[in-house]
Every structure is written in structure tokens, then in C-alpha cells.
């Protein structure tokens, strides 16, 4: 039983739309990376400084990634407005692009689009892929995954078909991936090298002028960007060395610690839980397949997954979302296995005529995918996001989101600047002109006015030092109306020395 490409791509879009796009802007902007990117993109959209990313209008030398993702977020802000959707659309669109890449790759090579459709569905039912710090938040990783999949696919096509245009496209996508997340984009290169040796094509590549043109182009655009940014923001390259070139690899960053089995355990127990048991059968099915190119794409995918895991497992810093780029290749391996079973059942149905219109293989695919798909949809609907945030922080984010979308009002209010995440700073910057907001510290709080507080310690400080009324309350967030200082503690409100 075959399926027309037009019908398959329509099914693909319908199936992946809900996990990737529905409720995309429902949760507030999250702390850490998404908040940092949101602030940087908002500031870039105002400053028009397209080279140096900033935080609080100062060069950001903590997140030293190149600005391609931030450029796309700025573009989305111009298209859909400055809101959560603009921050996250580049990630969701990149995920759709990743699914389409899988679909068109298998359609081109196999003339059977169902295999591409199966691989794409495996991908969007992968919990480590459709999640926070994945396809559903404004982070680097979804875009990086699409671009890394792109350059590896076109390198495979180049080795398979020998068309030089594929080598040009490989370098083009490699440059874009490096402009997305720097050094991480290059981790597949050892795998490409090994596969080129396996195919006995390394000498051929080294003789191609296009190969050297690609290297020159990479140096011009990628290294050129780093040098240009260091020119406008001295110290940037030193920060890159500290944050990317050895810093995270040789030392633990914050609490991101784990042993050498960290990523394997994460795949088995959480991120690839529904599918991991089919990886080894997928490799076996691929190696035993009569079609040579399926055997080769299985070997290629296995090499890329293994070498990538080897590199990131050797790093001292272990971060869960570093697994993102291997999910398309794991999906291909699992997809090959499922497609092999589909073909066996299709042959049985043709011979035995168990059902009309070859329903048996379709029933198999339905029952294989229904539970993983339901799980992903449930996660999307429930908006289960970062487990690292405290309830008070989540409440403050949601409160500010409500203000941005006119579901709450804090006109002429102050926001106490104590332990505010960059996501809350982003909300503040976006809405402050409309609502006449101001940031204050403990020692700059005036006697009268309204102030927004969300931490328990800060609430105690306000209640101990001011005569207050509660003007508004949202879970852990309280808007106090200040009616003068308590005289017994007036001396405590002076600015601290130093």
C-alpha cells in the first residue's frame, strides 16, 4: 500500500501541528535561557545593534552564542508583536522544518513518503524533543537541531550521489548552525569524517575545490563574526574561551553534574522512553534491509548518534537539552524498524486478504503511535514546563503575563527588584511604558504608592517597614498600597554603604 506525497505531507502537517504550535504562547516566558534570549531580542529590536547581543543594554558575555536565533526572534516581533509567541515561533517553525526535512529526505530517496511520515511522527512523540528548552520555548536548540540535521543529510546525499551542489548546501547549513550555537554545531563532524572513511570517499572530498571553498566561507562568516563582535565588544573572545571552548567541557557549570551514563539514563528513563527499546531492533532491521540506501542511512545515523553521545558524555557539565540534535537520527532508526514491520504486515494482508484496502498495517501504526501521541498532547495541554522554577517565580511570571495581555492592571506601580529573573525583566521592559512601571530597590522605596512583591521575605520586609493595604493579590504575588513608613524602622530604609 502506497501513499501519495501530497496526502502524506497533509497528514504530516495535521499530526505535528498540535504538539508544535497549539498553546505555544500559553505559559509565560521562562527563566534562564528563554528569558535571556527574550531580553536580548527585545533590546536588539530597539537598538538595531545586530552584532552585539545585550542584557540591560550591556554586552552579554555570559551567553556567548552568535545571534541567528535572536535575529529570528526580532523578525517575529516585527511580524506578530512583542509577545510570547514571537519569542517561541522560531523554535516551533524550526521543529516543523525538521519534520519536513525528514519527510522530503525519505521521499526523495525511497519514493515512499510513508517512511518519512513515520520518522516525523516518532520525532514529535519524543518527550525530550517536544518540551521546554526544546521545540516549545524560545531557546537555541530546536533551530540548532534543524540546521544540524540539514547539513548531515546533505552531506549524506553528497556522498551518495556525488552532486557538488549538495556539498555547497552542507557548508551553508553548517555555517548557519554555527551562527546559532557556536561550538556545539560542530559535534557531528567526527561522525561525518568516520562515515566518509567508511564510504571510502575521504580522498574524493579532499580533491574537491568546493570543499575548500566551503571551508573559506565558514571561516569568513563564522570566525569573521566572532572577530567583528570582539571588535565592537572587547573581551568577547575571552568570554567564548571561558564559556564554550573548554570551560563547560572541563568543569561543572552550576548544578549541571552527572556521571558518564547521564545521557543514556535520561534517554531510557525520560526523553526517549517510548521508543528506546526499538533502537537496537531498528539498527538490525536497517542492516538487514535489501535496499542499500536504507542500510547506509542506518549506519550513518548510528555513527552520528554514537560519536555525538561520546563527545557530550566526556564533558564535565551535563545538560539535558544537549541531547536534542540526536533525536532526528534516533527517530530515523526507529522509523526504519516500524516501516519494516509495516511492510511485512502489508505483504501478509495482500496474501491473506485479512482486511480490504490493506488495513492491517495501518491498524498497526495507529496502535503504535496512539499512546505516545496522547502523552505529548497531554503535556502540551497541561503546560508542564520547567521543573526548576519555584512556585513564587511561576506566579510572578504569570502575573506579568496577565498584565501584558491586559488581564490585570498595575498602572503607576513599582516592582521590587529582588531576585527578578530575566523573564520578568523582559515583561517589565515590554509593558513599563504602557503601565508607567518603575523598578525600585529596598532603599529607594518611597513612602507612598503601589508596589508588586512576590517573595515571602520581601513581603515581610514591606509589612515590617510600611503601613500597607493589599490592593491586589495573585497567588504568591501581592500588590501593596503603601501608606507611609512605620516610624520605628525609618532608619532601616537608607541606602546601604558601598
Report on this model:
- This protein has helices at residues 5-21, 33-47, 68-80, 84-110, 113-124, 141-161, 164-181, 189-198, 202-206, 209-232, 236-243, 247-250, 262-271, 279-288, 292-313, 327-352, 359-382, 391-404, 422-435, 456-465, and strands spanning 54-55, 58-59, 413-416, 438-440, 448-453, 466-474, 477-485.
- Helix 19 links the parallel strand 3 and strand 4 (438-440).
- It starts with a helix and ends in a 13-residue tail after the last strand.
- The chain is an alpha/beta fold.
- Strands 4-3-5-7-6 form a five-stranded mixed beta sheet. A two-stranded antiparallel ribbon has the order 1-2.
Topology overview:
Layout: H1 5-21, H2 33-47, E1 54-55, E2 58-59, H3 68-80, H4 84-110, H5 113-124, H6 141-161, H7 164-181, H8 189-198, H9 202-206, H10 209-232, H11 236-243, H12 247-250, H13 262-271, H14 279-288, H15 292-313, H16 327-352, H17 359-382, H18 391-404, E3 413-416, H19 422-435, E4 438-440, E5 448-453, H20 456-465, E6 466-474, E7 477-485
Summarize the structure.
The chain is of the alpha/beta class and 498 residues long.
Residue share in helices?
Answer: 55-70%
Could you tell me the strand content as a percent range? 5-15%
How many helix segments?
20
In round numbers, the mean pLDDT is: 91
Report the major sheet: 5 strands, mixed
- Rg measurement, Å: 26 Å
Widest sheet, order of strands: 4-3-5-7-6
Instruction: Give the total of beta strands.
Output: 7
Low-confidence stretches: none
Shape: globular
Amino acid at each position: 500500500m502506497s501513499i501519495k506525497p501530497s496526502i502524506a505531507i497533509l497528514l504530516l502537517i495535521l499530526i505535528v501541528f498540535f504538539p508544535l504550535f497549539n498553546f505555544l504562547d500559553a505559559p509565560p516566558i521562562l527563566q534562564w535561557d528563554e528569558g535571556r534570549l527574550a531580553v536580548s531580542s527585545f533590546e536588539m529590536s530597539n537598538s538595531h545593534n545586530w552584532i552585539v547581543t545585550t542584557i540591560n543594554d550591556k554586552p552579554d558575555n555570559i551567553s556567548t552564542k552568535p545571534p541567528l536565533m535572536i535575529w529570528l526572534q526580532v523578525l517575529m516581533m516585527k511580524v506578530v508583536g512583542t509577545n510570547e509567541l514571537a519569542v517561541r515561533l522560531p523554535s516551533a517553525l524550526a521543529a516543523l522544518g525538521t519534520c519536513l526535512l525528514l519527510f522530503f529526505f525519505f521521499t526523495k530517496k525511497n519514493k515512499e513518503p510513508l517512511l518519512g511520515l513515520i520518522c516525523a511522527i516518532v520525532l514529535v512523540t519524543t518527550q525530550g524533543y517536544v518540551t521546554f528548552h526544546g521545540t516549545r520555548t524560545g531557546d537555541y536548540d530546536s533551530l540548532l537541531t534543524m540546521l544540524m540535521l540539514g547539513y548531515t543529510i546533505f552531506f549524506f546525499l553528497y556522498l551518495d550521489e556525488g552532486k557538488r551542489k549538495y556539498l555547497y548546501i552542507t557548508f551553508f547549513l553548517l555555517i548557519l548552525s554555527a551562527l546559532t550555537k557556536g561550538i556545539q554545531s560542530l559535534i557531528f563532524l567526527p561522525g561525518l569524517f568516520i562515515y566518509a572513511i567508511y564510504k571510502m570517499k575521504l580522498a574524493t572530498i579532499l580533491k574537491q575545490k568546493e570543499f575548500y571553498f566551503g571551508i573559506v566561507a565558514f571561516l569568513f562568516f563564522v570566525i569573521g563574526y566572532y572577530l567583528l563582535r570582539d571588535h565592537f565588544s572587547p573581551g568577547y573572545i575571552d568570554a567564548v574561551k571561558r564559556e564554550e571552548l573548554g570551560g563547560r567541557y572541563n568543569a561543572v557549570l552550576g548544578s549541571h553534574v552527572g556521571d558518564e551514563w547521564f545521557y543514556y539514563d535520561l534517554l531510557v528513563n525520560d526523553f526517549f522512553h517510548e521508543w528506546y527499546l526499538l533502537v537496537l531492533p531498528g539498527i538490525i532491521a536497517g542492516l538487514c534491509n535489501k535496499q542499500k540506501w536504507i542500510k547506509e542511512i542506518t549506519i550513518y545515523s548510528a555513527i552520528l548518534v554514537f560519536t555525538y553521545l561520546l563527545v557530550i558524555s566526556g564533558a564535565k557539565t551535563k545538560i539535558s537539552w544537549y541531547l536534542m540534535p540526536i533525536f532526528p537520527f534516533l527517530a530515523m532508526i526507529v522509523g526504519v524498524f516500524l516501516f519494516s514491520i509495516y511492510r511485512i504486515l502489508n505483504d501478509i494482508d495482500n496474501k491473506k486478504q485479512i482486511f480490504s484496502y490493506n488495513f492491517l498495517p495501518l491498524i498497526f501504526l495507529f496502535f503504535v503511535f496512539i499512546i505516545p501521541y496522547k502523552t505529548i498532547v497531554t503535556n502540551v495541554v497541561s503546560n508542564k514546563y520547567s521543573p526548576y522554577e519555584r512556585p513564587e517565580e511561576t506566579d510572578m511570571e504569570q502575573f506579568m503575563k496577565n498584565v501584558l495581555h491586559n488581564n490585570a492592571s498595575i498602572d503607576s506601580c513599582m516592582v521590587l527588584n529582588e531576585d527578578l529573573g530575566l523573564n520578568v525583566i523582559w515583561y517589565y521592559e515590554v509593558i513599563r511604558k504602557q503601565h508607567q512601571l518603575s523598578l525600585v530597590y529596598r532603599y529607594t522605596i518611597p513612602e507612598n504608592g503601589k508596589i508588586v512583591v512576590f517573595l515571602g521575605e520581601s513581603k515581610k520586609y514591606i509589612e515590617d517597614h510600611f503601613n500597607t493595604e493589599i490592593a491586589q493579590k495573585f497567588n504568591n504575588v501581592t500588590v501593596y498600597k503603601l501608606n507611609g513608613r512605620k516610624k520605628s524602622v525609618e532608619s532601616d530604609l537608607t541606602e546601604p554603604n558601598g
